[in-house]
Design goal:
InterPro entries: NB-ARC (IPR002182), P-loop_NTPase (IPR027417). The chain is α/β, with parallel strands linked by helices. It folds into four domains: 10-198, P-loop containing nucleotide triphosphate hydrolases (Rossmann fold, 3-Layer(aba) Sandwich); 203-300; 304-373, Winged helix-like DNA-binding domain superfamily/Winged helix DNA-binding domain (Arc Repressor Mutant, subunit A); 377-520, Serine Threonine Protein Phosphatase 5, Tetratricopeptide repeat (Alpha Horseshoe). The chain is built from 20 helices and eight strands. It has helices at 47-56, 82-93, 116-126, 138-150, 203-217, 223-226, 228-237, 242-254, 260-277, 291-300, 304-313, 323-330, 334-346, 363-373, 377-406, 420-443, 447-463, 467-484, 487-503, 507-520; strands spanning 68-73, 100-105, 155-162, 179-184, 193-198, 320-322, 351-352, 358-360. The strands form two sheets. A five-stranded parallel sheet has the order 2-3-4-1-5, sandwiched between helices. A three-stranded antiparallel sheet has the order 6-8-7. β7 (351-352) and β8 form a beta hairpin. α5 runs parallel beside α8, α9 crosses α10 and α17 (447-463) runs antiparallel to α18 (467-484). The longest helix has 30 residues, at 377-406. It starts with 46 loop residues before the first helix and ends with a helix.
Length: 521
């Protein structure tokens, strides 16, 4: 792990130089890790919370030792800036942790949250343990993880977007010198943690955020000071929520001559439209009318191509995606897609990873984009076509990658990768999305896609010892096989499922599955 490496475990994937290389680096891994995403820009306010967090995250402070530090949202509020606060503090505190930092997005509000065993596998790889040396049973993985942490100096572990204490407890280190920072919309009452609850920013903090966000791109931008009343109206219309404020500021930055008061008027009009469609005073997230009008105004100012891409990106299996996924969903050429992705990032609808090769859509924006895609029959049809195109692309790439893993290239399978390392790197990066794609295809009763894709990634999941994911895929294929009355696929699925359960040391369940396979054979 060189000093220039930057590890980011959003969705349990790797971004940066580690991609395609972690499988081969077998060093002890005692170099301090740097796994945090970039610190948030235009962060302001929350001084009291920052001080409290820095105090409790001090490894030398014996009075503040606790299992974890939880940043939660008042009333389950999304977009309140939990992750931004956590990252701001984590970057400020990182020099206190000579053992390094680890970060994972637990995707607690996605259709397929990150399982603790998926997170711990990524952590162990970052800690210098080769995947072929990882035990199969989850309890042994966690024991190895705690042992690996015990051999290091203090480590800061950040678990983002947690929805359930069960995602946290297995990842707690055994030593009190390490610190765990958790963000969640829930209070997670059963977790023994120091809790810090966030509500909306104060009006002064929200105004300061707008001022700072405008001056970051242009130090001479004086619109906030020139229109103080309009800025106060703007931040109140945004509910003083950082997500809404950042999107509003991005709108102002993109249209430099535009007066703040014109954006205020647009938001007021959008709120009137939303009120006409929904119960008075509430939006689709059961909050005050805040997020939807801000999203609407931003969406309406996209050109047709940008708006289409925004809607279609919500069809990706997970909230993070790479350029090839965006190309497959949209049909836009690789030469043009980056510019359009950057256009969406400029208005805060998506964000890029530190390495710039992955993109992330906030789950509230993803839900909004998905809703847009079902608002009209033609848009719903467009979304279905996009998903089918992505499934086809995944299938072609997975088939080619599987051939490289098998060491035998067949003429009838188009080769998408220059060598085995490149194929393995792609599978490592996309395997969470691939597993989710198999499940989505089966739910949509696209059995042909689900079956073919599941079979193609089966070898990879076993080679890389992703046995929990292997179980999910095998169970999905088994459902498809029985619905289609496909005996050969059913036998394959039972065999793969039994092997995965055996590797997970679920011996009783494995014996039942293998017995069913023998009866079928």
């Amino acid at each position: 792990m060189g000093d220039g490496d930057h590890y980011d475990f959003r969705g349990s994937t790797f971004h940066g130089p580690v991609i395609g290389r972690a499988e081969h680096d077998r060093g002890a891994g005692f170099t301090a890790m740097s796994a945090l995403p970039a610190p948030p820009t235009a962060f302001t306010g929350r001084e009291q919370h920052v001080r409290a967090l820095l105090d409790v995250l001090d490894p030398d402070n014996t009075e503040t030792r606790t299992d974890a530090v939880l940043i939660s949202a008042v009333g389950g509020l999304g977009g309140v800036g939990k992750t931004a606060l956590a990252l701001h503090v984590a970057h400020a505190a990182r020099t206190r942790f000579p053992g390094g930092t680890l970060f994972v997005d637990m995707r607690g509000y996605d259709d397929a949250p990150t399982a603790p065993e998926q997170a711990v596998e990524s952590f162990l790889t970052a800690l210098g343990i080769g995947r072929e040396n990882l035990p199969s049973a989850p309890e042994e993985l966690y024991a190895l993880y705690r042992s690996a942490l015990d051999s290091r100096g203090s480590v800061l572990i950040m678990l983002d977007n947690v929805s359930d204490p069960a995602q946290v407890v297995p990842l707690l280190p055994g030593s009190t010198r390490h610190r765990v920072l958790v963000t969640s919309r829930e209070s997670l009452d059963s977790l023994t943690a120091r809790s810090i609850s966030l509500d909306s920013l104060s009006q002064d903090e929200a105004v300061a955020l707008i001022e700072r966000a405008l001056r970051i791109s242009d130090p001479d931008d004086s619109r906030a000071s020139a229109e103080p009343d309009a800025v106060r109206q703007l931040v109140d219309l945004c509910g003083r929520l950082p997500l809404a404020l950042q999107i509003a500021a991005a709108q102002l930055r993109r249209r430099k001559p535009r007066a703040v008061s014109t954006l205020v008027a647009d938001l007021e009009a959008a709120i009137d439209r939303v009120r006409a469609l929904r119960a008075p005073g509430r939006d689709q997230y059961d909050r005050d009318l805040v997020l939807r009008p801000v999203f609407d105004v931003t969406y309406e100012r996209l050109d047709a191509d940008q708006a289409r891409l925004f809607r279609l990106l919500a069809q990706a299996p997970t909230s993070d995606f790479g350029q090839p996924t965006a190309v497959a969903l949209s049909g836009v050429s690789p030469d043009d897609i980056m510019e359009r992705l950057e256009d969406l990032a400029a208005v805060y609808l998506i964000s890029s990873s530190p390495a710039g090769d992955r993109w992330v859509m906030h789950d509230l924006l993803r839900a909004y984009a998905a809703t847009l895609s079902t608002s009209e029959p033609v848009l719903a049809h467009e979304a279905t076509d996009a998903r089918n195109s992505l499934l086809q692309d995944f299938l072609l790439r997975a088939a080619s990658a599987d051939q490289h893993l098998h060491g035998q290239l067949l003429a009838e399978v188009p080769d998408r990768f220059p060598d085995r390392d490149a194929a393995l790197a792609w599978l490592d990066t996309e395997h969470i999305s691939l597993v989710r794609a198999v499940e989505w295809a089966e739910m949509a009763q696209h059995s042909r896609f689900a079956t073919a894709l599941g079979v193609c990634i089966d070898r990879y999941l076993h080679v890389q010892r992703h046995f929990t994911d292997g179980t999910r895929v095998s169970e999905t294929l088994l459902t498809a096989a029985r619905r289609e009355e496909d005996r050969i696929l059913e036998l394959f699925s039972l065999s793969a499922l039994g092997n995965s359960r055996q590797q997970l040391r679920q011996y009783r369940e494995a014996a039942i599955v293998h017995t069913n396979a023998l009866r079928l054979a």
